[in-house]
Amino acid sequence: FMHKGNRIRIVNRLKTPCVFATWNNHFGAYFLDNGDSFFRLFTFSDVKKVELEVKPFNKSIQKYDMNYTGGGIWQLELTAGTVQHADRYRFIIYYKDEVLPVKDPCSMWQDSYFKWSRIYDHALYNWTDKEWMCCEDERRVSRLSNETNRLTPVSALKIYELHIGTFTDKGTFISAKEKLEKLSKELNFNAIEIMPVENTYSFNWGYDGVDKYAPNHTYGTPDDLKELIDYAHKCGLNVIMDIVPNHLGPDIAELQKTGPYTDGENCFGYKFNFEKDSNSIQVRDFIIGAALNWIVNYHCDGLRVDMTKFMCSDYTMKQMAAEINFHAPDAFLIAEDGRDNDSRVIQPFPYSEKEENELNHEAYIAKIRNNNISLSSLGFDSEWDFPFHKEIASMILGAWDCRRRNLCSFDYSLRAAQTRVKYAMSHDEIGNIDGTRLISKIVVNELNLCEKMNTCCESEKCKLMAHASHNILVALVTGALEKMSDNERIAFYNENNIAVNIPVDKVKNAYYNAIQMHMLAIGKVYSIPGPKMVFQGDESASLSYFKFFRKFSIGPETYLKDKGYEPGLPAFLDSKLSAVKVSDSYSYINKCVEEFVRDLNLLCEHNIALSSGHIEKSYVFEQSDTHAIHCKKIYNEIFSISNFSSKSYYKNYGIMFPKGKWREIFNSDRLEYFGENKYLNEGSIKEQFSYVSLPAYGIIFFEKVV
Fold this sequence. Notes:
By secondary structure, this protein is an alpha+beta fold. The protein has 21 helices and 31 strands. It has a seven-stranded parallel β-sheet.
């Protein structure tokens, strides 16, 4: 054991540090090792008095005066037995002429959105993932991965992004457990990214969280979330928790009454007071404590940090990375930054700073607190790759939403993509536009719905086309479209603002093409080294909506009509993965896409060139709308060719291979991937310039064998 103050750092036999510790600068309520309970609140500096109210089960409310320690901080220690696990408590703030009862801003357990918090003893949960947390399981992803400890590097992440409320019918932490084994053992993902579970009013995406430390009460208890994460580790899945330090949701009045936590608004809501005045130090500690909470108390392996650009404080970003690097060295950080891949975000700290952080942590953090340190490196391990997503979307969707296909621009985006999280679609590109999936958007083009729409209102046309496409495809895969008479079909199209009767066969062909293009988009993501991600449902070509379904405790909801639907319960139910019941005659297509994604995950697992390798060279062939990438790491070399056109090539696509002997190891034209088994390349390729078969909207991978 290595002791540093009250921090305990446990070093396992692999010499990899793990942390089971209490952070010095925490706020909130927790139990000490001797059974005493400790309460710490940050509020306004001119508050006259703060009381702690405790409401034990079946007992009367008890009141205790808290002690002021300066800087707006009040705290109190109660002897063992005074407060029990699960007791309710709140703070009473005497501020100016008001008496303000407020919940704990750092509440670990809220069984409702309002007022009373519940004290939660993290030590009571019986974890079963000791080997995982002590880095004795090679499947664990660690930012400290190396050849000696044989842990999995961040670059090898194969992430499945999920939303607890819509992932299963019940929408709970416990019900989500039922699907984890399939993600790991059948589909070969090695990580799940859980969209934020920060508590707030009712069901939501999670990005409007108010209780930054407490899991959403509509999904279950803190113990339920721990059980989910514990089981994920048993299945070999790393857990990435999505957190939101850039704003607070609209149900914010409670925190504003509690203290100087906010500083005006940004485009998402109320922003935090990270740099405004002397209170900023405490607000930074508040949000960094929330980040550490998910890692230390919930055993999350990494964090995805939402829209760091809008934190408007690179010092807070750097402090978060420094604190986590010190307290939980294996944990990794992924930013969603939004500054067009600003290289500083994932620039590691220079060696001198790493050494200073390790040897004199308090002094190093003091430098950051005082804004007295270089911001040339912010220390995150990866970030979501916005520019790559925009380019792959343009390649697949062409003229959709005023995009233009540009292979050279797409090729340029690959250079930065190697160290960043790549994806074809995430929750943002689905729900923040019109709620429809990539397949529905592709079919808009395939059926040329732009010319078939009854509306001339350009501002509404895109969302109307997307919703019409979705409804047509749902009618197709559920079997309803084929059962309609011509008159019924005409009426159905009219209801969807479509002026013509589109034949069923034409809809089928559009859907089949869209499936191939959907797989091409995912395949292209996997052809580039570094971390990859798939959004829930896309692994099986789901057509279910993912709408913005936030229900508000205050204010009107109608302002979201611009998305083409109302938020609330109907949008939430539409967003369930099980919302579209596919008929037996089409369900095999979903299985084919699952096979495709499963084998892509295996391909990356068995080829380090596709995980932690680099792009040796890429090739643009504008005339044929094709693109090729040569990836390499040590002895492993992979050459992939992608065809973004509707033209197939049967043994007549001439291309210059990198030097060596090559053999095909993956082809999207295989029958099990909903292909034809016609455009396969058997045998080895020995000549540098060779003719190969290449399916339309297809991708093939070759491995160097000599």
